[in-house]
Amino acid sequence: MRGEDITTYNEVVRIGDVHLLPLISELYDLKGYEIQLIPAHEGGRNVVYTCEKEGVEAKILRIAFLNDRSREDLLGEVEYVRYLFAHGGSVSDVISSRKGNLLEEITLNNRTYFICLFKKAKGKMLVENHYRYREGVPIKEYYYNCGKVLGKLHQISKGYTPAHRRYSFFDKYNAEYIDKLIPDSLPLLKEKLFKLLKTLEGLDRNHEYFGMVHFDYNDGNYSIDFDTGQITVYDFDSSCYCWYMFDLAGIWTQGVGWIQFEPDAGKRKNFMDDYFETVLTGYRSETGIDDLMLDKLPLFIQVSLMENIIDTFEVMRNNGEEPECDEELSYLIKCLEDDIPFKGFFHEIYSCEVPFEYDERII
């Protein structure tokens, strides 16, 4: 959508069924494909479909409709994905339309919808496999591969010069935006977020540390081939220029899920040290990272909490809801307000019975 009023997800699905899908089918030669809507996940930004046809590789169709991404941004995303794929990155490649475009746009009733088609990644997500890894293979292989695949993407990014440049971290994460988005009833949170931004502004941004990153690298955004262990990454629509450490902090925060029900904080700490060491071994098999940046892991875990908090408030805003703090959001806010490191995972705030929850904040 590029109009003044906000189009909702359900509206786009209805418009899609009647008007968009026939046009898209022509644009991408999808005649004979079974096109099925993938149910939206919470916070999802797009309308997404699977496209399947006997004897042909399955595809993923995405319709972007929110008004906070420009055509330039979306072109920057798909061109980046194509570049990663062309240089050996393990990503779902973007498919050109019959006109030879990586991005198509359709305007209906003064609203513009941006269309992309991707190859469907081989395998399935961990959650679809009930968080079981490959039969008879140590789980450490998965930790290593998580780091290795990300390391390769970052190494490729270091040589990337875009035709259409994606936005940079500070274009979105700045004091003005945060002040507008976060309710005034959370003054301490705002203060801590401003302080965090100030710290980041002082960090080195040379190309070894700072470049195009996925910005949402987690097991919901890649599939695993359970025959080989190969990870294929997708969903780059949050990608932007940022420090590579942000993606590594994302892997760290993802790892807590493997040990979150362990009551002993010492055991949780030992597990996380071993886990992240294995991730880093995989990462360093593809690209370098120096100890100066690695020492900033606690800082970037705080930044990932900031991103999580901002995303949660954005989803409420996009859905036209009044801001509220559930137990999970209250937990993240508490960690930032009280400067509790490592997502509180080794702190007394954490409970293995109700992981990552805190008393609901009234705002």
Number of helices: 11
Secondary structure category: alpha+beta
Whole-Å distance between the termini?
Answer: 31 Å
Number of strands: 10
Rounded to the nearest angstrom, the radius of gyration is 21 Å
Oligomer: single chain
Strand content is: 5-15%
Mean pLDDT: 95
Largest sheet: 6 strands, antiparallel
Low-confidence spans? 1-5
The secondary-structure element order is HEEEHEEEHHHHEEEEHHHHH
Q: Helical content, roughly?
A: 40-55%
Outline type: globular
What does this protein look like?
Helices cover 41% and strands 14% of the residues. With 363 residues, it is an alpha+beta fold. The strands form three sheets. Strands 1, 2, 3, 4, 5 and 6 form a six-stranded antiparallel beta sheet that branches. A hairpin with a 2-residue loop joins strand 5 and strand 6. The longest helix is centred in the last third of the chain and has 22 residues, at 297-318. The chain starts with 8 loop residues before the first helix and ends in a 26-residue tail after the last helix. The model is unreliable at 1-5 (pLDDT under 50).
The gist of it:
The protein is an alpha+beta fold. Helix content is 41%, strand content 14%.
What characteristics describe this protein?
single chain, disordered N terminus, 363 residues, 6-stranded antiparallel sheet
Write the layout of secondary structure elements.
Layout: H1 9-28, E1 34-37, E2 46-53, E3 56-64, H2 71-86, E4 94-95, E5 104-108, E6 111-119, H3 140-157, H4 169-172, H5 175-181, H6 187-201, E7 210-213, E8 222-224, E9 231-233, E10 240-243, H7 244-255, H8 265-284, H9 291-294, H10 297-318, H11 327-337
Antiparallel strand pairs: 1-2, 2-3, 3-6, 4-6, 5-6, 7-10, 8-9
Helix pairs in contact: 3-7, 3-8, 6-11, 7-10, 10-11
